[in-house]
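Lay summary. Proteins are chains of building blocks that fold into shapes, and those shapes determine what they do. In this project we predict the shape from the chain. Here is one chain we studied, written as its sequence of building blocks.
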Amino acid sequence: MFYGYVVVLACFLFQGVGIGSYIAFGVFFNPLLTEFGWSRATVSGAASLAHLLMGALGVLMGTLNDRFGPRIIMLVTGVIYGSGYFLFSRVDSVWELYLFYGVMVGVGLSSIDVIALTTTARWFDRRRGTMTGFVKAGSGAGQLIMPLTASLLILHFGWRNASWGVGLIALILIVGSGLLLRRDPGRMGLHADGDNGHRKAQAGGKTGAGLSGREAFRTWSLYAVCSMNFLVVGCLMTIMVHIVPHARDSGLEPIQAAGVLSTIGGVSMAGRLLTGLAIDRFGNRRSILVCFGILLFSLLWLRTAGEPWTLYFFAAIYGLAHGGFYTLISPVVAGLFGIGSHGLLIGIVAFTGAAGGAMGPVLAGYMFDQTQSYQPVFLLLIGAVLAGLALTPFLKFADRGRLSR
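And here is the predicted shape, written in a compact code that computers can read:
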């Protein structure tokens, strides 16, 4: 069996538990508000800090992965991630919330996306989109399972014990699956996609092909994709942090509200898989445009959604775009610049997304605190989506065989 499939399965697992546990923070939102009386902006700030650190350190993680490989990185960050959730269960003040969740969980998260996406891109060429979609389906599965798991643990054992349980699950699966990784097929005497040397030569691909980081910085495409990712991830993370409080404000029970979040995660699995297949079949640009269209429709629908069925319908439509955008980023970077410096470049693009993802939820929380309504927030998100869509013509995919799409 081609070892690349083991790599993909390992990435699927730690993507699921890492991203799923982070998204489950939305389920802890109301218990924190109830116990401590903090504002929504204050609680949102912890999730935003974690997301910002994830992106900032992702540049470092990508560079280290290009040079040393993924296993030691996953070991260290997995231990930090689990420990952050353990200590989160002891929170009694704002500074502890920001240190244990914002900083420690953020440091642990920094390897989850960059390592999974870069390692998968190195192991697959012809099926890069499909395999990336499968890996990102792991985070969709985690978003389906972990919020419901955390919600049930909170219901039966309280939010502090639930935090400890989530941390234990994360520690075991992130470290365990991360140790199965290998940097690239060349380290094991293999070729991308499991091809032999003759077939690989016919395909015209080369594992180290592409622009260097310095060359990429001279292109408009890098700045366009970074700006687009800033806007899109800012929108996506605002929804993921605030959809449960919005659902509760609309009259849903706690389990129902958590179900909206889990529905997004479950449907995003289909979005990730379908987008991965679409990238290989129709190319990056068309896939980007379709995801923007679905996201815009879902946000327009959310403006009038208040009944349970309307919120679940929103979750089903939005989930397709949510999963699609997170699947697009790695193949898009590879399509624009090749994979020679993929770890560094995906880290840079992910950082800009993390900056947007950090800013969006805090701004949304502040706007709600000022207006007691999410309607201004939804209008702002629609504007961000339109601005991101306007950047797509500036993405110039190079003519490098399959990388040109």
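What the prediction tells us: The CA atoms of residues 303 and 378 lie 6 Å apart.
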